[in-house]
Amino acid sequence: MLSDQHIAILGAGNMGRALLGGLLRGNDVAPDQVRVTRRDSAALEMLRSEFPGLTTTTDNAEAAKGADIVILAVKPQVVQEVIDDIRDHLSENTLVVSILAGITTESLRDALGQDIPVVRAMPNTPAIVDEGATAIAGGRYAEDIHVNQAKAIFEAVGTVEVLPEHMMDAVTGLSGSGPAYVYMIIEALTDGGVKMGLPRPQAARLAAQTVYGASRLVLETGRHPAILRDEVTTPGGTAIAAVADLESHGLRTMLINAVATATKRSEELSQLNKT
Ligand SMILES: NC(=O)c1ccc[n+]([C@@H]2O[C@H](COP(=O)([O-])OP(=O)(O)OC[C@H]3O[C@@H](n4cnc5c(N)ncnc54)[C@H](OP(=O)(O)O)[C@@H]3O)[C@@H](O)[C@H]2O)c1
Fold it and tell me: CA–CA separation, 89 vs 157, rounded Å?
């Protein structure tokens, strides 16, 4: 899918670098197929030493020229200047993949001034360790091949769901912002262990691995979380006593509301981006 594609990653910060690492480590592309930009030359030099054969430049136009796929991985505040850099160097066949939160494919098309395929993606930070959860949506001119190419890019750093673009705010509320909720859960579980006498480093590892292991069990068995939960709640036992406590404090309602609140905030920010 990507083996003959030339890819420009514009803005190799946290997410851009994660994509680069995933694509190269998984041998989805060779280093000489990728050009990477950011403004900091020293940071680019470090990327070249980490990934020998990689081409880096501070010049977005030079990176985008002749690329089959251009990934926009800068912050939304600077996207206009990056688009100004590359606009004249894209062809109608160039696939533009954007990970910019809250920026629609239509507004990117308008900014690019061309009817070219755009795919919008919402990854999350676990992509840094190849465990990302990404949703992608094709814009008006994106065909199946473009969506599939974008899917292949994000599959290099985790799992991918293809969804209609109007669902991107909900994705932002769930998986985009979700790592923050899970870190709070891990931190609180750790504190619970410490409260009950466990040393903090061991408690932290036990808490994080418990969340990771439980997640893997859900994903790998495909079983409903409620069934898996029932299996660990022995009648009259410890887990059901704690589950009753969590229910009385409305844990599930809290998390449902958290996703809804973040979704609404994403909608508000998307509106601001339009003005
Ligand atoms: N982090 C998340 O959880 C997350 C999740 C989903 C989507 N996103 C989206 O991902 C994008 C990147 O986020 P991030 O967390 O990776 O940010 P980041 O670490 O700040 O990366 C952005 C990079 O863009 C570079 N940059 C700035 N101006 C540039 C320019 N004119 N030309 C080329 N490169 C330029 C910066 O490097 P220099 O300063 O060296 O130029 C920086 O390394 C954002 O649009 C965000 O909405 C992030």
Answer: 28
Q: What percent of the chain has pLDDT over 90?
A: 97
Instruction: Report if residue 222 sits inside a domain.
Output: yes
Residue range of the domain that includes 201: 176-268
Q: Is residue 274 scored above 90 in pLDDT?
A: no
Concatenating the DSSP letter of every residue in 128-162 gives GGT-EEEEEEE-TT--HHHHHHHHHHHHTTEEEEE
For position 241, which CATH number holds? 1.10.3730.10
Atom of ligand 1 nearest to the CA of 124: 5
- Pair type for strands 132-138 and 95-98: unpaired
With respect to residue 53, please indicate whether it lies within any of the assigned structural domains. yes
Task: State the pLDDT at residue 270.
Answer: 85
Q: What are the CA-CA distances from residue 101 to residues 44, 75, 77, 124 (Å)?
A: 24, 8, 11, 11
**Coil, helix or strand for 41?**
helix
Q: Could you report the per-residue pLDDT of 137-153, keeping only the tens digit for each?
A: 999 999 999 999 999 99
Around ligand 1, the residues with Cβ closer than 6 Å are 10-16, 37-40, 43, 60, 73-76, 78, 81-82, 99-101, 122-125, 176
Residue position matching structure tokens 């690019």: 112
pLDDT of 275 above 60: no
Average pLDDT of the segment spanning 40-49: 97
- Which residues, other chains included, contact 251 with Cβ-Cβ below 8 Å and sequence gap of 6+? none
Measured by CA distance, the residue closest to atom 18 of ligand 1 is: 13
pTM of the model: 0.95
Distance between CA 33 and CA 82 in Å, rounded?
21
Q: Are 173 and 260 in contact (CB under 8 A)?
A: yes
